[in-house]
């Protein structure tokens, strides 16, 4: 029943809002402007509005059901995120890691767990952990350690994962999130329980040639450093959870500790969802959901799960909500049981004897603290103070590279609002069409500032400005170079414009007569003709003024 | 400087450069030939001489070639091997490597201080191009793609790895009987165990199948077999020698150690393998002194060469359950130290008896984790199985021996939720206590002494079905591992047993990174010990030296 409900909403909203595909992408979950991500962003746009309340009209009954759920039950959502660090080498050996490399080409005795091989911690991993810990406003453990988490699996070469157990490197922080304006906006602060360092496992490949089936192990990823970030159960909706994850992605990208790419698995979220009747203080049974490959799937999976659990509650079947791991199925848009928890797994943690304790000192931490860049939250607050709308703020601060471009543009003295408009308008559109990042287009921030100044100072018209912009983005060059080369300086000399108006009048006596006979709509025609003669360079304001004077003078 | 090597009185000073980098000696014709290749003729009772120095000298003076030396050792190795079974694998490259050293000498090129020295390597230490099985079926035919750092260093100093010596599976045992492949015999009495787990390395040096050997010591695995086989065994400070390439048993306790037929040889080998290794995060950056620089030739010794040295005799090690013969031999050694000028006193380590249970809990816990990687997935023997769990279960059931399985089970139990605090955590607390009590005792004394084992070598099979009896034999040694301290075991006398008596080892324990002192004291002790010659009958009778 619940699944049916959601499927319906899904398909319906898609059909209702095909235009969302073309809309500027500054809403929820717009995570990146990289070519590969653009695809995702587009896909994400195809998804229904994530809020239950914003489900489309025409589904009144269903909307009411969902409203009732959110009135009667409260969802408690916590997220465990694994962030793959973009260090040059793995966590405990000197192998590089390149996503998509041939299986088992980036391995060594250490990450293969050969007998006698020993791990040595990559100091960059600790540095990145401290960076993220500080950025998440955590308290750092100056004496932490590594532990072994033990279980058998073919992708785990040593039979244990080097992780951190009882003394994580960072604890007790928070993450500030601004919710998208189109979903009501608002500011949220979500608690961070802990951040710890660990190594990734390899990957299993299923080889099935029709005759025989084999499980193959690719250990390229084994030993790649991860940070696990555990949130407090502070989220209440799928949207909040997805925005938390998006903000975390933004943060790691701002910090440069990870590419945060969900499709490559560089950022992986597992969520825990439980619900309880509003007013009840005891938590319900929590369910873990895995296989969430995008922010919108986090959103949808959670909302599905809330509805599933609420239905069971309302039918008096709350006992059927069991502690288990469920898998989000993108195809059917629902969660299904992956494995039931048979008691608590015993990982037999104990301190990793091959690695010394991780000791931080104040100097080290202070030097990292002082090297932190401006973080997304700070940036958003700064943009807000500059007078930008929240919509603009969220767009510009979303991608570190866009934010840098914007900052550089206004750093050159460009008008804040105009710079924002150019970037969010034509530049963003161009990037999307050409599948380029802002760093890949040939336009520099300095030239954009120059362009904005040229328009503001009336050297060129807005229309010419746009043409120049596209030329700059596609081919590069300078604003002044293009203006000179193409002779695009705006004509602001009234006598020159008067001459052109006279020329148009003399070439179109019939229309002039008609105008003076009362067909004043023809003013646009004359303006167009003059603009054509001027090759678009005539200052539009001046042109209209002179034209009107001349049209009316002789009548 | 070379003259100090060639002209008596010989000092070992500056044999190794201070920075522990391989240093090469120019070969130049030496006119005086002062030393024979092997200076222990069966009839002599003179103190043991350094075989390594002797070999080095003989090679440089061209009295003998490395090839001739290697042939002698190899033929002795092969003669003794059917009875002893010290080696799991003998290298095929020994003569080739010896030849290349001879070529270097012929070309007047530099050769390293271990040139021509045949080194036995315990089979839980990785060697490229040779099997490294840790004595386990689970690693049968496994050949590592890399050399352990200690082996690499031996090779850099021109040492020749002669082969891989037998051991208790993964170092778990005190007799070498739990090897999956063979039982090694004690050269003093082939019906007896050589001790363990480095029984093969100890027996091989004892029987002069090689010059020196590498072992590993987790709870006494170098020191106890050294005692049983009448050779010198050195367990360095934890972190002194890189563990990279040592197949882990209990990582926080494991160290690679050295065997030699003299203290000097043990010290030279230690100098070669010591030092920080960036591949082992637990290896120490502590400076490596020249361990042999203070080894003074016997003829230069004063009458009370150890005057003022404070020696603490650990009371708990001479209490009940120590064989009376062992006790009286060790007390004899105490008198000898007194004669050398030492100030003897009794010290008590109240937590001493707790060491054994703490050790077995910690070592088993770590081993249960360290041995998880032997799952049949990537290397080693893989059982044919229907599903994943069966693959794991069968590969491990067939691959591991019973002693290993028992320790994995014990360790898994001790680390399990609900038991961790009662076992692992408490054992760690005991460990801290032991470290503190050693610290106190070593603040007051230069060295501590004890027997190396409560008894001399016992019969093969005697304790095989009584693990607790076997474990209790480790009482003298495990505390030292828990404290991470260095300890030297050297033969100090005999008890009755076997055809000619059985050797008894004296253990000297030093402060962390104070191996130099242990070697100095051990060397003087050894050079001044009268009337004892620790050459086993297997060599003395029949097999040519």
Describe this structure in words.
The complex is a heterodimer of chains A (555) and B (545). Chain A is an alpha+beta fold and 555 residues long. In chain A, 42% of the residues lie in helices and 18% in strands. Chain A contains 18 helices and 16 strands. Chain A has a 9-stranded mixed β-sheet with strand order 2-6-7-10-1-11-12-13-14. In chain A, strands 5-4-15 form a 3-stranded antiparallel β-sheet, with no helix packed on it. In chain A, helix 12 (445-456) runs antiparallel to helix 13 (462-475) and helix 15 (494-507) crosses helix 17. The N and C termini of chain A lie far apart (75 Å). Chain B is α/β, with parallel strands linked by helices and 545 residues long. Chain B has helices at residues 2-6, 51-60, 66-84, 94-106, 149-156, 199-206, 223-229, 263-273, 324-339, 355-370, 388-399, 402-415, 421-444, 467-472, 478-483, 515-528, 537-540, and strands spanning 87-90, 118-122, 160-165, 212-217, 232-235, 255-260, 310-314, 343-347, 447-451, 487-495, 502-509. In chain B, strands 1-3-2-4-6-5-10-11-9-7-8 form an 11-stranded mixed β-sheet, with helices on both faces. In chain B, strand 2 (118-122), helix 5 (149-156) and strand 3 (160-165) form a beta-alpha-beta unit. The longest helix of chain B is centred in the last third of the chain and has 24 residues, at 421-444. Mean pLDDT of chain B is 90; it is low at 1-14 and 20-43. The interface between A and B is large, with 30 and 43 residues.
Number of helices of chain B: 17
User: Quick one: how many beta strands of chain A?
Assistant: 16
Global geometry of chain A = elongated
Structural class of chain B: alpha/beta
The major sheet of chain A is characterized as: 9 strands, mixed
- Spatial order of the strands in the main sheet of chain B? 1-3-2-4-6-5-10-11-9-7-8
How many helices of chain A?
18
Pair with the biggest interface: A-B, 30 and 43 residues
Radius of gyration of chain A: 30 Å
How much of the polypeptide of chain B forms β-strand, as a percent range? 5-15%
Termini separation of chain B: 31 Å
Proportion of strand residues of chain A: 15-25%
H/E topology pattern of chain B:
HHHEHEHEHEHEEHEHEHHHHEHHEEHH
Poorly predicted segments of chain B:
1-14, 20-43
Low-confidence residue ranges of chain A: 1-59
Averaged pLDDT of chain B, please?
A: 90
Mean pLDDT of chain A: 86
Classification by helices and strands of chain A: alpha+beta
Terminal residue distance of chain A: 75 Å
Gross morphology of chain B is globular
What is the subunit organization of this protein? heterodimer
